[in-house]
Each structure stands twice: as C-alpha cells, then as structure tokens.
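Repro:
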Amino acid sequence: MKRPGIDGGFLLCFGLNLILNCFWAVPAVVLFVTHFALGTPLWLAWLALGLWLVIVFAITAFMSWATSTSNSNGAGTGTRGRATVRYSSQRRDESIDLSGKQAIPTRPQSSGDVDDQK
C-alpha cells in the first residue's frame, strides 16, 4: 500500500506540529489584536505568523529527513562499517535440539533448605 503525502505523511506531521506548537503563534495573535486596537503596522503580525510557520516547517522537515536516513553501512552499530547480518539468517539449517536435556535446570536440593524441615 502506498503511503500518503510527501515522504509518508509529511503534511499530516506538519499539521500535527502546527497544532502542538500553536502557542508559538501567540505573538502573531497579539500583534493582530494590537493592529485593530492601537493601529500598529499589520506587516509585523504577518511577519510573526510567517516566522512561526517557517520554524515549524523547518523542524518538521528536519525530523522527517532524520528519520528517513538509512543505516545501511552499519555506522553506529559497533561493527566498524561492516554490514550487520542477523544471526538467524545465517543459521537456518541448524536447529536447537533439547532432546534428553531440560530447558530449565532444576534447583539443587540441599539439606539446609527450609522446605525440607517440614
């Protein structure tokens, strides 16, 4: 199934970030109110609103880029640049054989146990 939007829901994440960071728009709202109440320039309010949108967009774009980067060369995994291979993919022909052995060893009984003194 194809993922929606740009880079798997970028617009959805951007919208959620706008909602979560709505308090960053308070300066723009205050400037809009002061424009109508006191006559301050309207371009200041639009500048504050635009700055809020650009900052939230930049944060969302950075997070989207950071999560989309792949770790295909093994960097950061402690393998010094070698590709990481799962253990199970190398050993498909071998299976664990527990016949004749207990999976969980029993607790050894000693003469000093409290349970034995009943």
